Structures are given as structure tokens and as C-alpha cells.
Amino acid sequence: MSSSDPPMPTDAELAILRVLWGRGACTVREVQDHLDRDEPIGYTTVLKLLQIMLEKNLVTRDESQRAHIYAADVSEPSTQQRLVDDLLERAFGGSARRLVMQALDSDRVSDDELDDIRALLDQLDAQTDDDSDASTA
Predict the structure, then answer these.
(1) pTM metric for this prediction
(2) Residues in CB range of 78: below 8 A, 6 or more apart
(3) Which pLDDT tens digit goes with each residue over 46-55?
(4) Which of 10, 22, 93, 135 is the most buried (most CB within 10 A)?
């Protein structure tokens, strides 16, 4: 993590970020309504979390209207990458192979996902072959 990266989001903060990534900028009430569908959560809890997230530079706040509007200040792909990197180091000793094998060993991988993974591996293999050809030329 570089010094300019915000801290890793907590599980509750990540749930809020998912709402903001999916819906775009929202009021506290809109975030709370969306989160409340899965598990009851109070308005003041969401407000406090968003205030903490603002201090951590995870979200921005537009105060130009009566109802403040919050937006994610971190991208979904960069956050996911940081979380994977953290998990890879902490749980798998830096071994991508062990991480992937553990993920694929679960019953949660669908046939469609396996097809997508095979296609990605084929694509990466082709890129590696192209890079090898270019370096020997």
C-alpha cells in the first residue's frame, strides 16, 4: 500500500462502496434504503460510516444541496486489487497458485465461470507467446 492509498475498507464500508459503485452518487437515505433490503441498518449508522469514510478518503461529499450526496472516491477495480493482494499475502503466503486452486476447489464455481477462466488463461497464454516471440526477434 502506498502512502497515498486510503486505508482498506471494513466490511461495512465495502457494502456502502458496492452501493455507490453500482448506483452512483447517493444520499445517505438512498444508501440506507439499499442496504436495508439485505439487513436492517439505521440511518444514523450509515451516516456515521459515510462520515468516517469521508475522513479516510474512501468517498467524497457534495454539500451543495440540502441532502448531501456521497460518491465513491476509490474505484471498484483498484479496491478489489488491493483486497486480493492483501488476501494473497496474508492467507496464501504470496502464492497466486494456492489462491486460485483454493478458489476453484469450491463448489461455488459455475460451468460458465470455468469457461470464462479457461478463456482468460488462453488469452494470457497467447500474450505470453507473443511476448516471447517479440523478445527473440
Answers:
(1) 0.80
(2) none
(3) 999 999 999 9
(4) 10
Distance of alpha carbon 71 from alpha carbon 59, whole angstroms: 5
In single-letter form, the type of residue at position 134 comes to A
Q: Does the CA dihedral 36-39-43-46 come out positive or negative?
A: negative
The string of pLDDT tens digits covering residues 75-89 is: 999 999 999 999 999
